[in-house]
Each structure stands twice: as C-alpha cells, then as structure tokens.
Write a structure and sequence with these properties.
By secondary structure, this protein is mainly alpha-helical. The chain has two domains: 4-85, Arc Repressor Mutant, subunit A, CATH 1.10.10; 93-148. The protein has seven helices and three strands; from the N terminus they run H-H-E-H-H-E-E-H-H-H.
Length: 154
C-alpha cells in the first residue's frame, strides 16, 4: 500500500507526462507540492518516489531551472535539498515561452507574405491569442495577489 501523497505524485506524473513533462519530473514536482516536510533532500526524493539518483538530479535541475522548485539550505542536512518555489507554478505562467511563441507566429506571417496573405489566417489567429495571453497574464497574477495575498493563502 502506498501513501496518498505517493499516489498523488504518481497520478499527477501521468497527467504531466501527457503534457510533455517526463514522468519522473512530474513525480518530483507533485511530491514537492504535498510532501511533509516540505524540504526534501535528493536522497529522500529518490527513496520516496523510487527514482534513481540520476533521475532525481536531472529532474530537480530541470524544475529548478524552470523556477518551479528551489534549492534551500537546511542546517544539519547533507546534500542538496529542494522545496517548491513560492508561487513557482504561478511564475511559470509568465515565462518567456508565451512571448517566444508569439514571435514564432510573427516570423511565420513574414514567411507567408504579410498579415493579409491567404496562408496567414492560422498564424495570425495564434499570434493574436499569444499576444493576448502575454498582455493579460501579468494582470491576472496581479489580481490574484490582490485577492489572495502575496503568499497565495487567501
């Protein structure tokens, strides 16, 4: 029998895998959302999730570079220790991918001619969607913080 926390990590990993995240990385992210204590060493993550040290190392590096988790210093704890970044999942929605995708659509419009070219419809609509997201997400995050506070605890 596995713990509800481990089951959550397994279930979330499947969903995140369908969105393009490696299953092991999804397990790490989900575990760090629900584990107790909230700080976990690489060894604890490997043991709790039955992952290899290499999978933990690769996954934590990717999640840390994405600003979803962060490395923390814990007195008396050896090795690398990680926890969820405050607002990590919220900040991820502000990353450069939205702007990059909008720019990619603009490049595509240049390739097919211009805004009014017959083949520009799909590119224009997608570009407009990402421009909308790029403009609106910061306002939504600001509104969220105003409503729920900086820590998101409402």
């Amino acid at each position: 029998m596995i713990s509800p926390e481990r089951q959550y990590a397994e279930d979330a990993a499947l969903i995140l895998e369908s969105m393009g995240l490696a299953r092991a990385h999804g397990k790490l992210l989900a575990w760090l959302l629900v584990c107790d204590p909230p700080q976990q060493s690489s060894a604890e993550l490997a043991e709790a999730l039955d992952l290899s040290a290499g999978s933990v190392s690769t996954g934590t590096r990717l999640l840390e570079n994405s600003r979803l988790i962060r490395r923390v210093a814990v007195p008396g704890q050896r090795g690398k220790v990680y926890e969820m970044s405050p607002d990590g999942l919220i900040l991820a929605s502000q990353d450069d991918r939205i702007r990059t995708f909008r720019q990619l659509m603009e490049q595509g419009i240049d390739v097919v001619g211009d805004e009014d070219a017959p083949r520009a419809d799909r590119l224009r609509r997608t570009r407009d969607f990402y421009a909308f997201m790029e403009r609106e997400i910061p306002a939504l995050i600001k509104r969220f913080h105003a409503e729920y506070g900086e820590g998101g605890n409402g």
